[in-house]
Amino acid sequence: MQIIDAQIHLWEGDNAPPHHWRAPYTIENALRDMDEAGIDRAVNCPAIWDPGANDYAVEAARQHPDRFATLGWFPLDETADESLVDHWLDKPGMLGLRFVLMATDPGELDWLWEAANQRELPVGLMVWPQHLPLIGDIAARYPQMRLLMDHLAASPFEKLPEAAAHLDALLALADQPNIAVKATAVPSMATDEYPYASTHDLLRRVFDAFGAERMFWGTDITRMRCTWRECVTMFTEELPWLKGKDLELFMGRGLANWIGWR
Fold it and tell me: Residues near 187 by Cβ (< 8 Å), separated by ≥ 6?
């Protein structure tokens, strides 16, 4: 079974936010840790706090195309337009885009959604929970792009049950076939220790809604307080309902299909 982490961050600088406590996190660090944990590949979402992270992502994918691929980003300011999409996609290892929209209204980015739709791109998103219904509307209007919701759309700073207060809005997105979710950073919302049983019911409800072809394992490893291997075995050994073909899809094959990483 090939194991692919749906979201990590690689960067060289020392200016990471405090909740990303493994800093910096270099190519060499990641390869060492991936080998120790049995991780075959990882999708690098370049760190938004490091202006050099996109270039570093290109270098990671160029050096290790069998280990790293990238969902890149660019500033969504007044200078951003469709030409930037093709500019980024021309870079080695760049399979799609990923944006943190905590300070941007998704409803004001029709040019971006149209560009992604025309190119049938995967686009990762981190949004406020109140924007989830809007994301559903956008996905319906642009059905050829493929969205990936970070961290089950949960805040990185909340524990259960607050971290799942938006769950009904998230589950409603399952009606849109071009929306998938990343089960990334799940241990961070747990109220107990490994195997984080406090999260298991939440995971089952999301899995029942989205299925193995639209729910993907990952870590956001640089802010996890557990090991990468524990992030794996939490899903491969501690969830009896996740097995067989569903487990293979969940742990990597489904993500590879979604983002076109052959």
Answer: 194, 196, 199, 224, 225, 226, 230, 231, 234
